[in-house]
Specification:
- The chain has 422 residues and is mostly helical.
- Helix 2 runs antiparallel to helix 3 and helix 6 packs antiparallel against helix 8.
- The radius of gyration is 22 Å and the shape is globular.
């Protein structure tokens, strides 16, 4: 419960919420937190629908409680809007302009849902955040139990809906494992803030070890990078923002040089690398050569999926030189949006990194771990504009601040829905 003075401050900046409107808004976030881990494991593409549904329900619930709609973060909204605008403009010189523009619109809807939910979550008080966190932990536990049952019983449910791949069934959980490698950080942030510190550190370590038995190198990378980041930032909390910003800059500055060096050193034929990793080295080399042809404006938004038809030759190993995307966010941005697009995306990443510095207490270390882990995974896997991936990143960004003390966002006091009789 808040003290009477805290209640008066909250009432001065926000209309007092009656029991039912407040309960409805909290219920929306509890359901969102509980369902996200389960949906991300069972049907990862469903994270898009879950995010949109939560935003559609949260906006009127917030209005009912506060008599106004949630006000999005201005700087974050401008940065996201600038990215969408450049994607829409760059669609004009893509191979399929209309298709590319439709994708930009879908991205805009996802980002709009995210900023609405992010703004609405700032109004939740400590009691509400505790409930949301409990449901998040419960949903996370259910998703882990489901994976354990499926793996232990040889995938009985998945076999009923998917074509069997003898000896390769573990790949069915690739996206789910990657999702958990990111969702684990708001879970552990919430646990850390509530005093369960050993559990907060033990869970990602245990899951990181367990991910070795799955067919997802991306999940292993996410756990490893996240664990290293959280330990570093917990030991040196003042350097958390620097780590997040430095990781963002290196993603765009160092990745092209690293990709070029890998190919020149023959990693695409290295026996110690798995076949998919060798293939990525070839794709990245091909991507770098295309970037050099149009460095300023790029080939157009979402043009990567069409380059294979324009350059139908194969590599020296016989593999295709481009799949639907380069499997690297920085290279895809440089390829499709050019250096101008890279500046916009890098600015957005740095803004998010600075916003994370406003998360209260040591929980910010777990938010920064989620940020760096997501960036590491994005550099080696998935398309930059895949809707399920963007929805997952947005959802995790929304859940991280819910593990912190209410009423703060980047050092600025926010209105809080205080406890009222329910």
């Amino acid at each position: 419960m808040f003290s009477s003075s805290r209640r008066r401050v909250a009432e001065a900046v926000e209309p007092r919420a009656s029991g039912k409107p407040r309960a409805l808004l909290v219920t929306v976030f509890c359901a969102f937190a509980a369902l996200l881990p389960v949906v991300a494991v069972v049907a990862p593409k469903g994270t898009v629908g879950l995010l949109l549904l939560a935003a559609v329900l949260a906006a009127p619930a917030y209005w009912w409680a506060c008599r106004r709609f949630p006000v999005p973060d201005a700087r974050l909204s401008i940065a996201l809007g600038l990215l969408i605008a450049w994607c829409a403009i760059a669609s004009a010189w893509s191979v399929e302009p209309v298709q590319s523009l439709v994708l930009a619109i879908r991205m805009a809807v996802i980002f709009a849902a995210g900023v609405v939910l992010f703004a609405a979550s700032a109004a939740l008080d400590e009691a509400a955040r505790k409930r949301v966190g409990l449901w998040l932990v419960a949903g996370f536990g259910v998703s882990l139990a489901y994976m354990a049952v499926e793996i232990g019983l040889d995938y009985p449910l998945l076999r009923a809906f998917k074509e069997a791949h003898p000896g390769k069934e573990a790949v069915w959980f690739n996206r789910g494992a990657v999702s958990l490698a990111l969702i684990v950080w708001p879970v552990t942030a919430w646990l850390w803030e509530r005093g369960a510190r050993w559990m907060a550190l033990a869970i990602p370590v245990a899951l990181g070890i367990g991910s070795v038995f799955l067919e997802s190198e991306s999940a292993m990378l996410g756990f490893a990078v996240g664990i290293a980041t959280v330990l570093l930032v917990l030991a040196l909390p003042r350097f958390g923002r620097t780590v997040a910003i430095l990781a963002s800059v290196l993603a765009f500055v160092a990745m092209p040089f690293a990709a070029k060096g890998m190919y020149e050193h023959g990693w695409h034929r290295a026996d110690w690398l798995i076949n998919s990793a060798q293939h990525r080295v070839e794709i990245w080399d091909f991507t770098l050569r295309r970037i050099a042809e149009k460095p300023l404006l790029g080939w157009g938004f979402d043009a990567a999926r069409h380059l294979e038809t324009l350059y139908s030759d194969t590599s020296e190993t016989g593999r295709a030189l481009m799949a639907l995307h380069p499997h690297s966010v920085s290279l895809q941005v440089l390829l499709e949006l050019g250096s101008l697009g890279a500046v916009i995306v890098l600015g957005l990443l740095c803004l998010v990194a600075m916003r994370l510095d406003g998360v209260s207490g040591r929980a910010r270390a777990f938010g920064q771990a989620a940020f760096v882990a997501a960036l590491a995974i994005s550099l080696v896997a998935y398309g930059a504009w895949q809707n399920w991936w963007l929805s997952l990143l947005v959802s995790v960004a929304i859940l991280v601040p819910l593990a912190t003390a209410p009423g703060t966002r980047g050092g600025v006091t926010r209105p809080v829905l205080t406890d009222a009789p329910e």
